[in-house]
């Protein structure tokens, strides 16, 4: 097992702590603000028993997992001996440049330096660094201890060995790495999410459907198969001859739709007025946090279900 | 309970038979080809015990559900006394026009005439009919006995009462109706699916990701939350201040992506070559049917999980 250093302990950093410690790694945690570390450890102490109750700790007692997390007294101490550094500071490109320059200066020469950023290209924060070849993005979907997918995105100068080591580390920790060949805005996950949301906002803005209609179409419809197959396997099984047969039968439907999708919707404009009014009627703002806790319980139950279904029904 | 007439007993029609009979309705089934009815009933006899094993038959024995399905000797007999007619013939607009003209002539004057079409606008097959006001689309995602979402799409002349009665019928049968205000190519479901697939084919075609990367991004990532919340509730809970806060924080990411999505990909061209080569390596063509059976078992297990999680964790 390796030593992992987590730099920045907000929502994403604390979730990585659970994921890496569960996988058996020593996890050193560091944040400029000591109270962020307190909050993170408080969170970890609450979530580990929940994961155990859903059989999502590989059979190890919560305290044993917890014992592999160490609060570091300084950034240097956190980095000392770490083979993988996961950075989770706020999404600001100038700040990330400064952080990565410092990480590159202080970390072991062999360590991989990974950012959790969802929006900043790896080239933007690693350009010109002496160790630019070991810098990359490893972008999780929160929380990574329940959502396996992680995007690994190299800059043009990232060493393929750093990519491979990161993918191996994550895969062994139960993650499902998506290894991109090169960087692009939005990576894979947010490009797919953005394409769907863009059409969703357009349908609501043009008055064809409500926000709830869109949510029903996905949560009581498309996302059921997507949640265990993904969209390509879904269409591969939706025509007798597989995915090409599907495209030959149905592509003309999508061709007809395409021209009407070539128009950006302002997500903060009238479409948002409609979506927000509807959402706040269904869920008042003061209940957002309570609903987020419900979401986490549902996500945990779903992770437990998928694990069991994968074992019983086979893959 | 009502009498439902199913006209056309292919994959979609036979699945509707299960859904409507489970809800307590008398279901008259009719197809021009008697062997289609035999196949459909054979399928029903196999699937009902599976549904019972997953506690998805409302506690009623399979034989009791089955006893409400009747093979009609003629179209007239199927329609006699039916208050809802669900048409499931092949996706050909001329054929649908002929079928709907006949249904309109033969069905009880009060009956709603609904098509399961995924691709034909309701105005295209109901224009000019005496009973055009009772014609609409009720498009399920297959199989409707496991996937609750159904799109109800009116033509410009559809009577709002026909829409309301169809929504009530489906909701009482455990469906989640999406009631569109007016027709548009692709309705809601295929427009959302098309937007996602278009970006997926573009990412593969441009060499940024493999088809499996896309499937992992969705099945091990985005679709987990989508499968019980939908995309709008997902982003509503992804920023402290709700959906508007989310758009204000992250819309600029999606704005940057948008221009690069304004280009159609030929789903049958080089992008398909890549997707198909990959899919056929993972799953040879001769195992497609076996995998579709696996998908149906997973879908059934997921439906059972969602029912249980909804009850235990609350909604």
TrEMBL record, chains A, B:
Transmembrane segments annotated in the record for this chain: none
Molecular function as annotated in GO: L-gulonate 3-dehydrogenase activity; NAD+ binding
NCBIfam families: PRK06129.1
UniProt domain 3-hydroxyacyl-CoA dehydrogenase NAD binding: residue ranges: 3-182
Organism lineage string: Bacteria, Pseudomonadati, Pseudomonadota, Alphaproteobacteria, Hyphomicrobiales
BP terms from Gene Ontology: fatty acid metabolic process
Residues in 3-hydroxyacyl-CoA dehydrogenase C-terminal domain copies: 186-252
Gene3D superfamilies, per the entry: N-(1-d-carboxylethyl)-l-norvaline Dehydrogenase, domain 2, NAD(P)-binding Rossmann-like Domain
Family according to the record: Belongs to the 3-hydroxyacyl-CoA dehydrogenase family.
Record's keyword terms, sorted: Oxidoreductase
Superkingdom: Bacteria
Origin species: Roseiarcus fermentans
UniProt protein name: 3-hydroxyacyl-CoA dehydrogenase
UniProt-listed InterPro entries: 3-OHacyl-CoA_DH_CS, 3-OHacyl-CoA_DH_NAD-bd, 3HC_DH_C, 6-PGluconate_DH-like_C_sf, 6PGD_dom2, NAD(P)-bd_dom_sf
């Amino acid at each position: 097992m390796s030593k992992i250093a987590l730099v920045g302990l907000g929502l994403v950093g604390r979730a990585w702590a659970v994921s890496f410690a569960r996988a058996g790694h020593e996890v050193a945690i560091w944040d400029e603000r000591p109270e962020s570390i307190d909050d993170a450890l408080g969170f970890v102490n609450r979530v580990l028993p929940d994961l155990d109750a859903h059989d999502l700790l590989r059979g190890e007692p919560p305290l044993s997992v917890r014992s592999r997390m160490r609060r570091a007294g300084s950034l240097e101490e956190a980095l000392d001996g770490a083979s993988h550094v996961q950075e989770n500071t706020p999404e600001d490109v100038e700040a990330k440049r400064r952080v990565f320059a410092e990480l590159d200066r202080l970390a072991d020469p062999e360590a991989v330096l990974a950012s959790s950023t969802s929006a900043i290209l790896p080239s933007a924060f690693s350009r010109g660094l002496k160790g630019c070849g070991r810098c990359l993005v490893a972008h999780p979907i929160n929380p990574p201890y329940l959502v396996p997918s992680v995007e690994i995105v190299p800059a043009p100068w990232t060493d393929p060995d750093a990519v491979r080591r990161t993918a191996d580390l994550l895969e062994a920790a139960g993650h499902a790495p998506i290894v991109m060949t090169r960087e692009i805005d939005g990576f894979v996950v947010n490009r797919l999410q953005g394409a769907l949301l863009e059409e969703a906002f357009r349908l609501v803005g043009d008055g064809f459907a409500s926000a709830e209609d869109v949510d029903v179409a996905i949560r009581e419809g498309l996302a059921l198969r997507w949640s265990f197959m993904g969209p390509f396997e879904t269409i591969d099984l939706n025509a007798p001859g597989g995915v090409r047969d599907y495209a030959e039968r149905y592509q003309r439907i999508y061709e007809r739709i395409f021209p009407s999708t070539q128009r950006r919707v302002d997500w903060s404009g009238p479409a948002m007025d409609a979506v927000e009014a509807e959402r706040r009627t269904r869920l008042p703002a003061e209940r957002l946090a309570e609903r987020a806790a419900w979401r986490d319980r549902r996500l945990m139950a779903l992770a437990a279900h998928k694990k069991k279904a994968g074992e019983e029904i086979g893959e």
